[in-house]
């Protein structure tokens, strides 16, 4: 692993964006159950990955609040 960035949304640690060798982009390591479906997803940039993770997290949060 060359480098990583923490992805935190609304004060909740969701996982890490990992920069691997090569031109694949950033791989997401999910640490929170609400975004587990995105574990190992690869995106070309941190902004796109963060948006995808935030969307998934907020959708799951809404679904739980509705119950």
Describe the structure.
- The chain has 67 residues and is α+β, with helices and mostly antiparallel strands.
- 31% of the residues lie in helices and 33% in strands.
- The chain has 1 helix and 4 strands.
- It has one helix at 46-66, and strands at residues 3-9, 12-19, 26-30, 42-43.
- The protein has a 4-stranded antiparallel sheet with strand order 1-2-3-4, with helices on one face.
- Strand 2 and strand 3 form a beta hairpin.
- The model has no long low-confidence stretch (mean pLDDT 91).
Task: Report a brief summary of the structure.
With 67 residues, this protein is an alpha+beta fold.
Q: How confident is the prediction overall: mean pLDDT?
A: 91
Distance between the termini: 40 Å
Provide the number of structural domains: 1
> pLDDT below 50 for ≥5 consecutive residues: which ranges?
none
Fold blueprint:
Blueprint lengths: L2 E7 L2 E8 L6 E5 L11 E2 L2 H21 L1
Antiparallel strand pairs: 1-2, 2-3, 3-4
Keyword list:
67 residues, alpha+beta, 4-stranded antiparallel β-sheet
């Amino acid at each position: 692993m060359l480098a990583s960035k923490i992805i935190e949304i609304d004060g909740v640690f969701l996982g890490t964006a990992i920069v691997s060798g090569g031109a694949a982009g950033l791989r997401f390591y999910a640490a929170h159950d609400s975004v587990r479906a995105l574990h190992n997803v690869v995106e070309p940039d941190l902004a796109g990955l963060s948006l995808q993770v935030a969307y998934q997290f907020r959708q799951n949060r809404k679904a739980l609040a509705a119950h």
